[in-house]
Amino acid sequence: xxxxxxxxxxxxxxxxxxxxxxxxxxxxxxxxxxxxxxxxxxxxxxxxxxxxxxxxxxxxxxxxxxxxxxxxxxxxxxxxxxxxxxxxxxxxxxxxxxxxxxxxxxxxxxxxxxxxxxxxxxxx
Length: 124
What we know:
The chain is mainly alpha-helical. The protein has a single domain, classed as Arc Repressor Mutant, subunit A, CATH 1.10.10.10. 48% of the residues lie in helices and 6% in strands. A two-stranded antiparallel ribbon has the order 1-2. Strand 1 and strand 2 form a beta hairpin.
C-alpha cells in the first residue's frame, strides 16, 4: 500500500510490489484480493494493467489496511486442541480467550485509525 501511495497515478504490477518486499507475487496477489474486496485498491488486467489505490492515500487509514488484511479472523487464534470440559479452567478458557482476542483486535484498530496511509508514506 505504501508503494502504491508513492506512485498514485501508476498501475503497478504485482511483480513490482512483490520485489519491493521480497516475496512471491502469488502471495501479493492473495493480499491484493483482500484489499480490492475492501475497496482500497483497483486493478486492471492486460499489458498496461496493474494495481493502484482506489482513493487518495490521505483518505485511507492504516486501520482500513489492517482490517482488510486481517479479514474475519482475530489477530490471535485458539489452539486446535480442545480443552478438557471437565476442568474448571478448560471448560471456560476458549470463551475467555475469545473475549480477550476481541479486545486485542479493537486496541489495534484504535491505535491505527488515526494514521493515514499518506502520513505513513511520508516517513520514507
